[in-house]
Amino acid sequence: MDELYTCYMDPLQEVKELKGTNGAISMVGTLSSIAGGAVVGLGYYVGILLSFSYNHRPPCQWFVIVAGAIAGLVGSFVDSLLGATFQYSGYCRKRKCVVSVPGADVDHISGSAILSNEAVNLVASFITAITVPPILALVWPS
């Protein structure tokens, strides 16, 4: 069987799950999502700084780095929740790996075969894009 690793499908309980299982949340993956979001925010911030001339000071926009990190975290959790619920994960005994399609030699791990990986990514992106900005607007520094 594939190597097991620590994941947090239930936020209150640490469990071991196969690498590649849809919806599994690892500490490394979560921290990477936060870092990735912060890098996107930093890129936006640098773009703002570069778009203003030397004589004109840009408006304070440092919070976009924090906002990017928050959006990365929220997006990662939404993607994992959707993946664990609506995307099939099974263990193929023949190939000895996690697969996303049910079959004769496949043991069900989690999820239903409702959405593909691409559909999960699209829906998670949409949900993140419509929920994070209104929340951040409440706490954006003036």
Features:
142 residues, 3 helices, three-stranded antiparallel sheet, two-stranded antiparallel sheet, single chain, alpha+beta
Largest sheet: 3 strands, antiparallel
**By helix and strand content, what is the structural category?**
alpha+beta
User: How big a fraction of the residues is strand?
Assistant: 15-25%
Number of helices: 3
Count of DSSP strands: 5
Shape: elongated
Task: Please describe the topology of this protein.
Blueprint: E1 4-10, E2 13-18, H1 27-51, H2 63-86, E3 89-92, E4 97-99, E5 106-110, H3 117-139
Antiparallel strand pairs: 1-2, 3-4, 3-5
Question: Can you describe what's shown?
Answer:
With 142 residues, the protein is of the alpha+beta class. The chain has one domain. 51% of the residues lie in helices and 18% in strands. It is built from three helices and five strands. It has helices spanning 27-51, 63-86, 117-139; strands at residues 4-10, 13-18, 89-92, 97-99, 106-110. The strands form two sheets. It has a three-stranded antiparallel β-sheet, with no helix packed on it. A two-stranded antiparallel sheet has the order 1-2. A hairpin with a 2-residue loop joins strand 1 (4-10) and strand 2. Helix 2 runs antiparallel to helix 3. The termini are far apart. Mean pLDDT is 83; it is low at 4-9.
